[in-house]
Structures are given as structure tokens and as C-alpha cells.
Amino acid sequence: MPDQKSAIRTDAAPAPAHTFSQGVRKGPMLQVAGQGPMDPELGRYIALGDVKGQTLRTLENVRAILEAGGASVEDVIMFRVYLTAREDFAAMNEAYGEFVAEHVPSGVLPARTTVFTGLPHAEMLVEIDALAVVSEVSR
User: Which residue stretches belong to region Disordered (predicted)?
Assistant: First the structure.
């Protein structure tokens, strides 16, 4: 049944620490839960104090969940970025730009919202979630 809702799970991204799924897919829609800069192999936050390094790790975690759900970064229509400090915007944006340039070959960039807020763990400078529409090519 193509419209059945299913949880997405991969060991290539950190396990969810709370009562939610890494991602949820229903039909062609795939929502990736907010990810942070945790290294799934080490089981700890990385690049402490380095928003660029944390952004790249966070986006790799998002990418792993997208791929586990049958999508790619190319299929993302919206990223939401949550930063703890306004002064980190330029470094985050630089890392984000490098990542999408590498993983969105069409050049049609996803939409994005950036919000400044508190995050659940003091080590986290950034959290990112994504909404994708899975294309037939990605399946």
C-alpha cells in the first residue's frame, strides 16, 4: 500500500534519544526528524564549538536517513536549520552551501528556513530537519 506510513531507521545516523522516529515516510513524502552533530559510530557530539564542522556532520546524518527512506538530498524540498547563536550563521551557511552544491546536482536548491533558538543539549550549536518528496529515480 503506497500511502502506508512507515518509520525510517538506520544505524548510519544517531538513534533517536526520545519518543520519535529518525524519519517517517508516507507515500512519496519523507520527513527527517531534527538531527544534530552526533557521530553515530562514536555515540557522542563532535566538533564542539565549531558550527561549520557540526553543520556538516548534522547534514550527513540527515542524508543517511534520507537514503534509508529511499530518497537523496536532491529530493529535499525544505531544510529547517536551528542555530543557537546568530554569529554562527555565516559559518553554518558556508558549510550548508558546500554540502548542497555537492549533493544537489540539478542545481535546484531546496527551500530553507533558519531559526535562532535554544537546543536540547549544550554541545549542540545546530540542528537540521528535512522534508523530501521521493522521486521515482531515487527509489
Answer: 1-24
Instruction: Give the span between the Cα atoms of 134 and 139, in whole angstroms.
Output: 7
68's enclosing H/E stretch is helix 51-68
Q: CB-based contacts of 109: which residues, under 8 Å, 6+ apart? A: 100
Q: CA 93, CA 97: separation in Å to the nearest integer?
A: 6
What pTM value is reported for the model? Answer: 0.94
| Tally of residues, the chain | 139
Count of Cβ atoms closer than 10 Å to residue 61 Cβ:
25
- Looking at residue 1, its pLDDT comes to 47
Specify whether the CB–CB gap between 53 and 37 falls below 8 A. yes
Q: What is the grid cell recorded at 53?
A: 564542522
Question: Following DSSP, what letter does each residue of 27-38 receive, concatenated?
Answer: TTEEEEEEE-SE
